[in-house]
Amino acid sequence: MHCPFCKNADSRVIDSRTSDDGLAIRRRRECPECGKRFSTIETASLMVMKRNGVGEPFSREKVVGGVRKACQGRPVSDDDLAVLAHKVEESIRASGAAEIKATDIGLAILPPLRELDEVAYLRFASVYQDFQNLDDFDAAITDLRTGQQ
What we know:
By secondary structure, the protein is of the alpha+beta class. The chain is 45% helix and 21% strand. A 3-stranded antiparallel sheet has the order 1-2-3, with no helix packed on it. It has a 3-stranded mixed sheet with strand order 5-4-6. Helix 3 packs antiparallel against helix 4. It is elongated. The termini are far apart.
């Protein structure tokens, strides 16, 4: 790690702490050359592989944006959506994979969205699971009523 003050190529870690619910590590460092201290934040990157093969970093904002459309007109707050995005990220990171398919993110969204709002869940599932007719909606509603997933 380069010192931001003197550009020395070496630094010494003085203290390490987890932050952001364990998703990042904050390190306090000291430069052996100039003696100044500075902080770094380290996070594990999570890449999303899209259907076309292009990879991009995981974004909670994209999860919120996609789910927000399904929640339009429903009693769901921005805080609720932020919590949902956090749950989705936690479940994806728990798999331990550095790369994840975009379709797996959609699957990870469904359970917490179902807990949040059943109507929004049906809206999201109808697009994500490509419902073709009323029978698909009927089957999903029956699953909701019987508590199946």
